[in-house]
Amino acid sequence: MDIHVITVIGSGVMGRGIAYAAAAAGFEVRLHDKQESQLAHALETLKADMDTGIARGKLTPSDKEQALHRIKTTTELEEAARQADFVIEAIPEILDLKLQLFKALDSICPGHTILATNTSTMSPTEVGAATKRSGQTIAMHFFNPVPKMKLVEIIRGLDTTDATYAITRSVAEQMGKVTVEVNEFPGFITSRINCLVGNEAMRMLQEGVASASDIDKAVKLGLNHPMGPLELADLVGLDARLRNMQYLHEKLGETYRPAPILEKYVAAGRLGRKSGKGFYEYDS
Description:
- The protein is of the alpha/beta class.
- It is built from twelve helices and eight strands.
- The chain has helices at 13-24, 36-55, 61-70, 77-81, 95-108, 124-128, 162-174, 190-206, 212-223, 229-236, 238-252, 260-267, and strands spanning 5-9, 28-32, 71-74, 86-89, 114-117, 137-141, 151-156, 178-183.
- It has an eight-stranded mixed sheet, with helices on both faces.
- α1 crosses α2 and α11 packs across α12.
- The chain is globular and about 55 Å long.
- The chain starts with a strand and ends in a 17-residue tail after the last helix.
- InterPro entries: 3-OHacyl-CoA_DH, 3-OHacyl-CoA_DH_NAD-bd, 3HC_DH_C, 6-PGluconate_DH-like_C_sf, 6PGD_dom2, NAD(P)-bd_dom_sf.
């Protein structure tokens, strides 16, 4: 099956990054969000990100113009999804929200449409069970920032067909991504490892082992990570990281109990870059 129209649900950091990658790859993109203001902000950010791509030699001005022309925005879910060949959901990691959305998408989308959830921890089997097309439901785990990060984890649900997997892999590769196939298990590959590293760094910070900057510096220079674990948590969003840890703790046990400092920071509204303060402070 040829994929022409990709619908992206959610215009936050991940959603607009996926829209960028899809439009730059030549797909027609329908970007959906409930708030018009969010969509306007997403478009402005996309333009700035594409200017950065031009500066890095990854895009030409003509590429930017054509990619932006391929992106259509809408606050109406039916308008976004009724002609979709492939849907990528990029809403918060809250299972009930995903189940409600996939049930609605199942009733709107054409019969051939594949439904993908962009999730770092959650079960495509459980999400697919909210639809009548569990064989056409799959998980894709993109990484932030999407235009720069090469990896996409592709996770099959219990009923996901080989054809659905093959098409999903092809879509990711057309976006310039490298894929790995993951058998469904909570946290997949990278999130299980990443959450453990980040949680241990948070415990070290609350125990006074070292400052946040020195913990991150040690991991970057000593273990050759491109970002420190606390910097990365701020980028992802501490509320999102806490939801991931809570889910993994529920599914996999005490090893994944969230560090108390993470719960305290989220309760205080210190959510990382998006709030201006997390483990570090940021200019508005």
